[in-house]
Sequence to fold (634 residues):
Amino acid sequence: MVQNVDGDSEGNAVRDDGTRPPRAVVGSPRTEDELFGQAFDKNIVRRIWAFIQPYRIQLVIAVTGVLICAGVQLLIPLIIRYAIEHAITPGSNDGSALLVATGVFFLAILVNCVASCVQESAIGKMVELVLFDIRRAMFGHLQRVSLSFMDKTEVGRLMSRLQGDIGAIQEFLQTSVLSVGDIALLFGIIVVMLWLDSSLALLTLSVLPVLFIIRIFWLPSARKAFMAATETNSAANGALAEAIHAVRAVQSMDRQQVNFLLYDDKAHANLKTQLTAAKYAQVMVPIVDTLTGLAMAVIVVGGSQVVNGRNDVGVTIAFLFYVQRFFDPIRSLTLQYSVMQRAMASGKRLTEVLDVHIEIQDKPDAKSLWPHMDGSVEFRNVTFGYDPKHPVLKNVSLNVNPGETVALVGPTGSGKSSAMALVHRFYDVQQGQVLVGGHDVRDVTQESLGRQVAMVLQEPFLFTGTVFDNIRYHRTDATGDEVIEAAKAVGADNFIIGMPGGYNAVIGERGGNLSLGQRQLISFARALVADAKILVLDEATANIDSYTEMLIQRALTRLLAGRTGLVIAHRLATIRRADRIIVLQSGEVVETGKHDQLMARDGLYAKLYKLNYASFDDIPEDQLDLTPQGRRQT
Fold:
């Protein structure tokens, strides 16, 4: 029985017996390598700059606006000093000077307001355009990366890069321009203070070594804290994505509360590291405020100099304003450090995605299969494995003639689906050749190959949108009449017109508002509209009811007419309709022939047939062994 979850005094999830749940097992335990990069990585900045460069005009406008604002902030204390010295202090009652100072002051405020509005508008537009380009570049690249990369990459981690890391880049871009103003203001204040009174300026700046010493001890611990926060956040996101994708399995096995306990551990670890990172990010603020107070106290020396006549009131007042403003950019740049470091780490992760090698690419001289292609398929001594050290297909040779329907059967793991993936060139072989229409698939364009090979998978994937758009997904130029004709041909028209909106009815995410059989019929209609010369059915009838299978069997006659059919199926009707049956075991072709011929041989195919269509009680125990050793024994 699942125990209830409460919280302890520290906010940790606990069971009824007061114990913490075990470490989570949902989600990958892996963490990203090099999650936290250098505080400033010129290579990452150069890659980000490539996206900024098209919008450098907006960048120049924003930087100009920031520098004007910094200049105004430098000017205001000087205006106040002028007013004090010429119109306020005893013996200097120049009314026109006060009027001039007031006019210049309001003009400076107006210029600052306009410059601030301009730079905010320019940087906001530039940042959104840059992020738009980064998202497009990443999405476009991920659409073309090889399936071998996607097979070993978690969706949650990719989503973290597409969302969380881009958010870090957004924060960096928005604040980096302001940092230019902070740096300009910082050095400007130093120059002006030295110009006004070098001895008082040096005395005031004497507190800076204390800040640098503190930062030397702060940086290593802060770096570790920021890295740990990023790692735990990535792990939590991966676990969350996995739990959401598997929600049907979770609910079917009543694992909701158990999964909550498991996920809570990752969330709790993330909470701890985020709180620690926040502590290090904020600790410099009170330190800088304290140093500001010490610097202001130094100005007391300036007050004594005024009393002694060594300095004037205007200079002292100006120093007070400058010292107060001097530590503002330091405080801002201190906070910007953590933003920049996160941005460098996120930039590295984003560029790693953009740099993923696309293994399956067209050759420079690749040919097009369209429109002349006879529909033949041939495997010549093909050896293939997802891990080259462990081949799934071993020296396989087979030939499918144009217009012929061939069924591939064999035990689980025999290489049937892998062979079909090679026809569409989802992967490249390690040895041998896969030929379509007499051409090596590596010598033709992927676009033309995709037009000639249509696939219907065991679990059809439908996209959010209308039924009409899903049926013509493979061929967007298909007309309404072609879509309806295809739906009627596969028997999908009856349930489609019964839906609210008919062909314009909106399908939910992954077709969740349709039954599996309905989704499969729509995928068959999609394959028919594609009008490809080669049709691959990868156990497309495995998970449907008998009535739907009857509809599909009727449609197959229409669907396979004039086309080459490659069928992976366990259903007797689908197999018996095939012109030829190829039996695979452990990645090798062990039998070939028609159904009756293979049954007469009483080999592996006969065993598979008996297992699928006869009662286990009727099969001798020694006939149940489908391993190569068992096959040799019989």
